[in-house]
Amino acid sequence: MNEQKAVFPQWRYRACDGAVIWRLMFTETGMIVGQTRLPEQRRSLFFSLAEHSGQVQFDDFMPMAPDGTAAGESWFTGIETVAGKLVFLHAYRDNSPEHLGIWAVDASAGTVVWSRADMVFCGVLDEGFLVYRHSSFAGFPERHYLILDPATGREVRRPGQESEEVNRLRAGILPEEQRQGVVLPEFTDSNDSRNASLFSRDAGFAGRCEALCSGSLAVAACHDYDETTGKWQSLLRVRLHGVPVYEDAMAESSVRPAVSSFLVHGGSVYYIKGESELVALKT
After folding, report:
1. How far is residue 122's CA from residue 145's CA, in Å, rounded to a whole number?
2. CB 280 within 8 A of CB 12
3. What is the value of pTM for the model shown?
4. Residue 253: exposed, middle, or buried by beta-carbon count in 10 A (0-12, 13-18, 19+)?
5. 141: part of which helix (H) or strand (E)?
6. Domain ranges (residues) in the chain
7. What sign does the dihedral 1-241-182-259 (CA atoms) show?
8. What is the per-residue pLDDT across 57-116, written as a single tens digit (0 to 9) for each?
């Protein structure tokens, strides 16, 4: 490795024992908001960090339902999207994979700015959030669509029920990674000659690899399964201008590989090590 060009972690955030860092999003105001899940306790919590310093803004946050209990039984919750300084959380309908409820949380303070327990988020539009509310007519379920102001939760207008306009609006929703400027890895083959600069030929990873390229930055992770022990190793490699600058094990002797555990945002690499530690590499 070229020591003069080596990259070192800028900061690390470690979740509590037994936690798995589940999802990350990036606000326009320079915050990283993440979700941690504690499977043994069946709890889902949220944290916020300053992107450039890793300073904790809030930790172990849990949205509350209107009746004062933990939303989603403290387990069935997730991150929906971000807008401005706010992150938007959701719960789920009972016994359903469908999301239900919107909590707008200040990513710097960890305070709820507004919430709508009856709304289901669809996506972000130029004019606001496309959402819908369940109702029924003559025993048949219906969806009534609205557009909300992300900053206040107030109604902007009502596109109405399923219609050509609603379909047009839904078609215009951008993927979150595109909105937030996030580059995600894709699965690839380590034996492909086009990937020779990313993967070591003698590593024996048998093609279980992910990779991404962003400008002069190339990042790859290979996942190796040991049939003798039944354990996985996931190794991260970073190259800048084609030169190796960083390497680390994201998982060692693990029951599962560290798949989909790294990304690039704003020229920095973020990866999850050992399921519970977020590491930031400034390149």
Report:
1. 9
2. yes
3. 0.90
4. exposed
5. strand 140-148
6. 1-178, 181-283
7. negative
8. 999 999 999 999 999 999 999 999 999 999 999 999 988 999 999 999 999 999 999 999
